Amino acid sequence: MSILTVMFHWLGVMYRVKGLVAVLLACTNVLVMAVPFFTAVSLKLLLPGRYLRRFLTRVVTFLAAQYNRNNGMIFRMMGSIRWHVSGLEGLNRNTSYLVIANHQSWADIPVLQCLLEPHIPLLKFFLKKQLIWVPILGAAWWALDFPFMRRYSREYLQKHPEKRGEDLLETRRMCARFADTPVSVMSFLEGTRYSEQKHAKQSSPYKYLLRPKVGGVALVIASIGDSVRTLLDVTIDYGTKQEVTIWELFSGQVPEINVHIESVNIPEHFPHGDYENDPEFRAEIKRWIESLWQRKDQRLSEAREQASTANRGSRLAKGLE
Q1: 8 A C-beta contact, residue 303 and residue 237
Q2: Predicted model pTM
């Protein structure tokens, strides 16, 4: 057995041990935080009073943020990640944001929570209306004021034209609470995680991205209205390791994470546009999103090229030793 084989064997053992420790710590985090969190959720469900519920919302938000911070500490402890981050300057926890990002892997969400939540309000995701009935989690998302949305299909609206616009009005009513409390609304515009197969199937014009779902972001902007004026365009890249799993993140197998954050003003008229019925507005918001996606694709191209060059240089240096 060669020295290299032995080294890789023990490296694998080390990662499995780290992963086991991370799992135990993550389970402990769930158990410790679940009791106060769901106590506050239950009180918010049962007790009347607008101001009391608003106070309990702040309590559950604080506990959820602490849970996310604990998870971030766990995967930071398990590995020696080289972080390359730009764009955090000027972010404010008292300001509301719409956050968009490319979707590389399941690791994206804990990475974004770990990196952004010390600087901006708790990340909240738009969820399908049906998910409110998921046991335990549905109540937690409701207590955290996650916006639930329902979109009618074109086929359904053709049969029931009286329902046209109701989905937007309902979502806007849910988002009205954001006018009083700072919020960070998160959306992965690609709608799914990136893969070469999905990229080829879409015939995506971008080198490292899937096509963005413009209609989805138009609905989000219309729903949140004038309460959110700044968009944070986040680009995530894992260097030479692109296929990253949650297990690899928490077991210390992710050597590098690159994150670029660009703050962009949302045009003032966008929340009031009619994406479904106004072709000029639809074309305008499409151009706006595509320009963001082109810049993001260019950043990813430059990052991948640098990573590839560094990797070739490392292999060459090892070959000369």
Answers
A1: yes
A2: 0.83
